[in-house]
Amino acid sequence: TYVMEWDDMVIREALLREHHRGGQSFIVVPRISDMANVEEWLRENVPEIKSVSAHGQMSPGEVEERMGAFYDRKYDVLLSTTIVESGLDIPSANTIIIHRADRFGLAQLYQLRGRVGRAKLRAYAYLTHEKDVALSEVAQKRLKVLGDLDSLGAGFQLASHDLDIRGAGNLLGDEQSGHIREVGFELYQAMLEEAILAAKAGEMGLEPARDKVSPQITVDAPIMIPEDYVPDLAVRMALYRRLNQAEGQHEIESLAAEMIDRFGDLPQPTKNLIRLIEIKHQAIGANIAKIDVGARGTLVTFHKDDFPDPLGLIAYVERLNDGGKDTAKLRPDMKLVINRAWSDPQSRLNGLFQLTKGLSGIVRKAARAKKAA
Question: Do 309 and 362 meet the contact criterion of CB atoms below 8 Å apart?
Fold first, then answer.
């Protein structure tokens, strides 16, 4: 395994070496948008070899046809996104070039590297990153770990390093993945909420940090990653976990773009899931503990019946009721009632997104004002 800046000469020699010994190579990129540049590079720098491309936005039939042609050794190089991460066994392919490897997670890099080395021939993996681009500390650690792990037992060492880099997570909370397969993503979250509430009641004497508790949101909408969209259970579970651990809008959008790259357009239940994750992030920022969406409206419960900026909340309710409307009501117990019936699941989720965006915006504005003072 070599960790290095992209070097035209080194990569050319690696591909030709594999070609001359009768083998094949993979080139993996993090985004579909990266493929055109690599295809052009192959034409200009390694015209001696034949390459074929595959990615998740192609039809399943086209991907299967191209993969089959590569398997039948009609091509020397397969250029693809991470659709080759699992389930692909081609013993004749013993060189892999991972372009912009700093954009991949540690487990992804380990899985990709495992696509080669399935025959008796020596295998080569090149983890490359762009020249003159500063890598984050985490990316540097990931690449160093993969460069060092070449021995028996590397899987255990990888898990240990991953634990060091990302942290162990919590027994209770968003960082625990558990048996989502059996109960479904949202029900699993609700079960965790119940466990946390029981712990807070005193039996375990545990008081979890507020920012680690996911708000409970009850909304009638299909929320999942369908099996026919991501057939591999392990990959599906990893996506659930990564979505749940995503920090901020940019990371959520990046993960959604990666899923589109790998598996094609998002089905509606997965769009709903991503929207719900966005809503929960905003709800945490607004100190929301629970949101119940019913046929006639929505009830918002704040954590410990407290909102960080009560005057800002009252002004927000008044704006919603502007023009004599009866859209919102703040009850004496500090529960917010929204008198609006959304007709379909997408409208409900989009409505909740705008609501939590408005509430979290009030909190951020108050925090900025306090800091400035």
Answer: yes
